[in-house]
Amino acid sequence: MPLLLILFIGSGCAALIYEIVWFQLLQLVIGSSIISLGVLLGTFMGGMCLGSLLLPRFVSRSEHPLKVYAALELGIGAIGLLILWGIPLVGGVYTAWAGPGVAGLFVRGIIAAICLLPPTLLMGATLPAVARWVEATPRGVAWLGFFYGGNIVGAVVGCLAAGFYLLRVYDTAIATYTAVALNLLVAGLAALLAKRMPAGSAEIVTATAGGADATAPGAWAIYVAIGLSGMTALSAEVIWTRILSLLFGATVYTFSLILAVFLVGLGIGSSLGAAIGRGLTRPRVALGICQVMICAAIAWTAYVLTQSLPYWPINPSMATSPWYTMQLDLVLCLWAVLPGAILWGASFPLALASVASPGQDPARLVGGVYAANTLGAIVGSLTASLVLVAWIGTQHAQQVLIITSLVAALLVLAWGVLDHEQMSQSSQWATTGGLVAAAAFAVVLARTVPEVPGVLIAYGRYTATRPPGDDIIYKDEGMMASVAVSRMPNGVLNYHNAGKIQASSQPEDMRLQRMLGHLTTLVHKDAKRVIVIGCGAGVTAGAVSIDPIVNNETIVEIEPLVPRVVSTYFGEYNFNVVRNPKVHVQIDDGRHYVATSREKFDALTSDPLDPWVKGAAMLYTREFFEDVKAHLNPGGVVTLFVQLYESNTDAVKSEIGTFFEAFPNGMVFGNTANGVGYDLVLFGQVEPTTIDLDMVDARLKSPAYAEVAQSLRDIGFYSAVDLFSTYAGSAADLQPWLKDAPINRDRNLRLQYLAGLGLNLYQSGPIYAEMLTHRTLPQNLFSGSDALKNAVMAGIQAAGQ
User: Fold this and answer.
1) Domains of the chain, with CATH numbers?
2) For residue 287, which of 371, 225, 230 has the smallest C-alpha distance?
């Protein structure tokens, strides 16, 4: 049995590595919108559920359990390699067939099913397969709980190994090969054990008396309860991850930490539940009490996440290393999440013990409970992410979870206690009173759940040190993100997303946003159709929209809440772009929209969330830039925002170096604040770029461009000379500086790991100053009158002094 426990640790480690890798690869294909994530998660967990149900029905009990287990592990490894090698083919098929609406959703589901169902069916079957090694007694069922706990321990190791090492240092291929090696090792050890312990030996204890259909009385109540437990567990994980990502920053490291802590709790709880359950005569009572305690755990975490942790007097920018901040985040996460996770983990072995009966096929026993728990988890994760948070908010969603846990508790206790034949009438009345008291207790707890403070949505981990006098005038929780708008005492408006200011009416922010929009359309000779990735405050999209040549603009925004918010609060600054009749807002992930578009466009500008936000790096990969090039009309222009603040040199080099690999004629324009580097605009064309200064100057002086000229004057650019004097270097200039730049590719998404280490750092000035040391005056970039060219050259020289 201890040897089997070790095998399950290895199996769980491989499974979590696969899960992280497959989700990353498939999001690149079908997108990272909430719909796509729901399809992926539902398919993954659905396969696990089906596997646990189907194995006992299709694999004979006469087969050696360890041989079956070894075959399953070999199958998982083989399919893992096929998925890694087959994703490019799958991606080509998807982009050829995908489209909007129900048809597109159907294609996403088909792709997810093709890739995820085969391996997850095998993964779900592993625990039922080995369950036939034990007997359906309290002692035997306890070992199933330990196996489940061991699997979770391995999952913790796999989660941390993938998130902090394999994908940060290597790529998806190396991570996959590591998981495959674990599968082979586990399969080999299982096969060796099978030879040492042949089927039918005294060491293998299985029930054989045709009792496969034997079930404990009232077992249906346990199945419903463990399903509800799975539902509340995954719903809570979705909700708490969302709040914690505001507090810690939505980096890949944060998500790995949260998942690891949740899994640690499940593993501890499963082991405790298995140890307790083997000595209980009525495990149903323990299961019911466990569900009541979950009500209290949800209320505890809700309070800690919204009323306690955000106000701890901690300034993360004081840390000398991001790893120290992550250590603090780990402790905070354990403090908040561990109690509930332990109780959910204990529920599984207690449920097994509650439905176990002599003569029952152990595989059917564990398969049924596992399937019920997983089915509940599917419902919980999808309901929380797609419906509850956006519909009623995290506060009311957690109240629903408390009441759901109460229902599970009452269901189990009513059948496990009141229906007990040997109880006296007085005992039954006393127990009924206890149930009523438990229900009242849970209702009171539900009423204490606080809402997420607007200041937490706005400032995340800087809640305790936020600017004084900042007034949160709007906050809401959408499907993909929580959004807030604040007003400073001086009247400046801030747009908040991902727990920080993403855009504002501050001069330096307005300058960057309008530079992005106007450089995109002014340099192009005839930009009629333009794509804007990322709505934000709408200022970049608004700058594009007022160009009189543009007659078709598409804003691609992943969060449905954002366009509605910015149209209400930022219309003065974004030229009411959302209401402009030539502007169409497409709710989608920008990469997915470009990949599945059947049309070409004249220009694209991209202003996504910070690259350290999980998923944003997909919009900075070499493959995405190549896809953009394939959708450009001749002479097409691409501009891209690159932040210098809350970043580090390696991340900035990765962004610029990757862009220049795709656009070797590219260049950089700098946006400074008080003479110090603040952020950048990357500019690229497939063809060699020539900026016609006479054309731009004439446009800005014409009545048709009066609104564009005024927009530029508002940010301190009074002529074409002022705008192009922000030139900060070309790909050729920066080549020595970028020689060691880590290129961000689909297979590694290196940028999100580099940028995640730059969170809370403020090194924009030194990074920009170092970059400028490599800049030379452009010789053939500008055309037009000598007077204008000389003025621009003088402006560039002055800007570098």
Assistant:
1) 1-198 (1.20.1250), 218-452 (1.20.1250), 458-497 (no CATH), 508-799 (3.40.50.150)
2) 225
